[in-house]
User: What shape does this take?
Amino acid sequence: METLDAVSALGALAQEHRLAVFRMLVKAGLDGMPAGEIADELGVPASSMSFHLAQLNRAGLVTQRRESRSLIYTADFDRMNGLLAYLIEDCCQGRPEVCAPTAEAVSRAACCTPPQKKRARK
Amino acid sequence: METLDAVSALGALAQEHRLAVFRMLVKAGLDGMPAGEIADELGVPASSMSFHLAQLNRAGLVTQRRESRSLIYTADFDRMNGLLAYLIEDCCQGRPEVCAPTAEAVSRAACCTPPQKKRARK
DNA sequence: TCGATAATTCGAGTATCATCGAAATATTGA
DNA sequence: TCAATATTTCGATGATACTCGAATTATCGA
Assistant: This one.
């Protein structure tokens, strides 16, 4: 991940509502959640939530797919892993012997693997 | 680390200059760097840099100590580790079996351990 | 085709961020 | 005590960010 991508991803997560959304979407896994449900759950007006979802989307941290009338948002686990890897490498940069093994472990372990597919929502 | 602390730390890193400063300070290790040198290195006016350093400081990602006329800034490795741990837990939240071992590995390895003390600057 | 549902885009208001020169503060050495 | 150095704080400016109601777009079922 490039530095500018990291800045953009960090900025997307650096907001209370958006961090909450992302946490929620991680929990939801590959099924994702419709915009309206996210907004309801967090008690934020739909138009405000739409703004935040667009930011997360632009930063690549969530993807969007239409399912009938709903737009389903899903966390992008690869992207989040990319950010984590960047931060860990960044953090240890110039001193790889200190924690490169850890960075390596993280990237090998593919930390943010989406959980196995769940049942379709009722 | 609490969610609001994470938002604040993420916000501090979500800016090109500040991310560059943090990278630089990580490289510098416990010795840290004086504000002026940081500003020079990045080609940013001193007053602008002071603003950014204050933000990093407020977010707890750097500490400040006076050494004669200079203010030396140092990366706070514990804080950065806290942020990484938060993000990794966050990312895997509700599905610990997927990557808890990785989070554990990261925290055990103390990824952002400051490198051993270097020579005093000339 | 029409009404209902789900969401986004628009517009306007307020707030916070980023920038940078000038002025103020802290420290040192002579 | 005074000039020089290192840095911050102040003030002003322009740019983004956040909020949310109203208007618009897309889709579905009858």
Notes: The interface with chain B takes residues 3-4, 6-7, 10-11, 13-16, 19-20, 22-23, 26-27, 29, 77, 80, 83-84, 87-88, 90-95, 98-99, 101-103, 105-106, 109-113, 115 of chain A (CB under 8 Å). The mean pLDDT of chain A is 83. Residues 15, 17, 44-48, 51-52, 55, 66, 68-70 of chain A lie near DNA strand D (CB under 10 Å from a C1'). Residues 77-92 of chain A form the longest helix (16 residues).
